[in-house]
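Hey,
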Amino acid sequence: MSIQGASVTVEDLTVAYERHPAIHHIAGRFAAGSLTAIVGPNGAGKSTLVKAIAGTVRPAGGRIRRDPAGPASLAYLPQQSEIERSFPITVLDTVMLGAWRRIGWHGAAGPDEMEAALAALEAVGLEHFEQRGVSTLSAGQFQRVLFARLMVQNAPLILLDEPFTALDTKTTRDLLGLVERWHGEGRTIIAVLHDFDQVRAHFPDSLLLARELVAWGRTADVMAPDNLIAARRISEAWDENALACHAAAGAERLRA
């Protein structure tokens, strides 16, 4: 299977929460078909950048351009802690939700969608789990379900926010295999990660953040010791009480 990946261009991007900058004047481009890890110290703005690309947070300054644009071009997996699991829904129905952008909320899933969902569950090792409730699953099983839903979405751009946190070794290995498979199909993949060994082994490109951009490019260059030291130094020196830059403050005044 081959697919044309999406490109993402970030232009002087600032995102602020209550006028405090979370990321500040980020600029660069994720090439179509690239596989990029977003790394940096805790509180560096990694998840904020992914949310801005996904469109779930609004920039205070700058902009993001996706090509192709539109909701169907994007599949976004937030952190597990942000996903409600108590809702009474089966594994199969959860995976089928990946098709809603194609069939609409009022459309009926047909044989093609059912076949895609069952194939996705088999790909993540959860065949015969179709009628299990998601609330009964372990963290690793639930993450496999969410990866299956991403497969059904079939998007050229995939965003993953800490997709392997608190997972067992086998689940992490299996899901990394899926990420590499998607990359091989030509999709663009951007993932927030904490495990530097994982990044070096599986992600050709990296973006190092410390609320501002420290380095962006080939992983071997980005993860150089000098860059990691600089990121830590910038993060430790950041003033939590600093007001957002003029662009962010101006955007807030316009929204007021």
